[in-house]
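Subject: Interface between my chains keeps coming out wrong

I've been trying for a while to get a sensible model of this assembly. When I model each chain on its own everything looks fine, but I need the whole thing in one frame so I can look at the contacts. Pasting all components below, labels as-is. Any help appreciated, I'm running out of ideas.
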Amino acid sequence: MELRTALATLAATDHLLVATDFDGVMAPLVEHADQARPLPEAAAALRSLAAVPRTSTALISGRALDSLRRAASPEPETLLVGSHGAETWTGPNAAPLQLTPEQAELLARARTAVTSVAQDAPGCWVEDKPAGVVLHTRSAPDDVASAAVDAARARLGELDGVQVTDGKRVLEVSVVHTSKGEGIRALRELTGATAVFFAGDDVTDERGFEALESEDVGIKIGPGDTAAPFRVDSPAEFAAVLEHLLELRRAAVEN
Ligand SMILES: [Mg+2]
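Reply #2:
Try treating it as a single job with all components included. I did that and got this:
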């Protein structure tokens, strides 16, 4: 099926959930994550979709919620899932993430392990998240990066209960076992969506594509193996898809 046909069918659903990854999808990838900003066309389309009746919007990101808010400046209607599903913001009354004492202790040990690896690996650095820790290797030479990832995996293998996931030049460590697929399932239930649109560009987004059902539409941005039935090349092309979906959805809701 063509993407246009699939979008037209999707837009006619009773309650639509439009969920998208942020980095590499809404926003072009940049060297420094702090500088990532959504393409204006994509941000405007998502904002307008949020205002359409029977339509919910969400950002599902690997970023911690704080970092996602800073980079994306989402409108208050947009639901947020951060840290690959470990953090969720569903409105003003949403409960913040609370780690059990065991999870907090495990996180401290994981942080120590990853930090000691990064200290010996020039160009690698560590990001703290509320439920995890991330080894960033984007600025390191390839051999240093892969040795650091191997060393971190070995150290973390000694810790029972940590979830370790590969991303693009990052190693994600979480003490809350979750995924973007879990995030989509939770949002589907919360919003009562009858169909879901989901877009992503990274390995961790594959869990999201796998959580899609037959009436949903999944789009992979850029190259790489994917379970998504559709693909576009760039965030700019994705912005055009969102704008098209907005048009179709407005027309469908008016009828
Ligand atoms: Mg991404």
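Reply #3:
Confirming on my end. The chain has a mean pLDDT of 95.
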